[in-house]
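Re: the request from the purification team.
They wanted to know what the chain is likely to look like in 3D before they choose a buffer screen. I agreed to run a prediction and write the result into the notebook, where they can find it.
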Amino acid sequence: MWIKAAVLVFYAHDNLTVLKPVVFLALCMAVLQKRHYTTTSKILTQIACVLIVIPLAPFICRFIPPVMVAGRNIDLVIALIIAIFLVWAISHLLRPLIIPLLALLCIVLVYNEFSNKYTFKNLLKDYSATVNTNWMVREHKQTDQVSINPHLFEDIYDRTSREVKEKVQYQDSVVRNFAVKHSLQYFDEYHNKYGDITRFLSLFKYINSNFKYVPDSQRDEYYATPRETILNGLGGDCDDHSILMASCMMSIGAKCRLVIIQGHMYPELFLGTKKEFDVMQQAIIQLFSDERIRGLYYHENNGEYWINLDYTARHPGGPYMDDKVLLIIDP
């Protein structure tokens, strides 16, 4: 009754015309807060709140940079807390909107299934990635001469090193355009979270998904330029793949090197410190979740981390073929 009286008195004064819409909204909110709810409606509202938090948390997490505490990834935990707070606030201020909000989220997720945006599959992958990163992953440091003393190889196989370096042509316009195009092909929805890492991983996925192995003649070793490999339809041997991968990665800002073992060459991507390695590991586990990754294989020396980009690896940081390193080429 007092609300009705307040409304009549307020609207009787013409001098308060400007404030009438604001006050009317405030009075409506007061009415909503005073509304009586049955036990059943309260239970349904609480269930709806939980169902809203589940998809809302990983969506918020996409806009939070990776946060590592004591070796654990907690950015999804932070997002979960934010989501709980937002839903709690809405449920107390505008409780009738909870059910419509849940319906809206479901509609958005269903729509995204047909527009290849953030879908139910992404939702499950995000939760799974957090579990895998914190409890399932084991690191695999490669124990060979690269980890012990990479400078040991600087002065050997000069001819091979010179020939390969001449072929790493990352400033070629064809190479650059190819790399830019396919660095945008996958994982763009995670760029706000991982930044340029998504570009590197997208490019790796495209090259390794489409590269076809074609051996050289038995008489001599031929090193193809990245332009040649792109124009021939991504065919070649391990040397051609390594030169292509390193050139494309370097053309979009990455740092790479080429490692030669007995009868094989593979590229490696420079990550930097242990902290940067942890972020990359989290990104790979999340974006390549279909591969059931149990840890990354890497080389480390003096706190600098490198991961494998070989065409034999189904994901960045896959197992190495051999630990008998003969030469390292730094383009």
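For the purification team: Residues 39-61 form the longest helix (23 residues).
Please add any questions underneath this entry.
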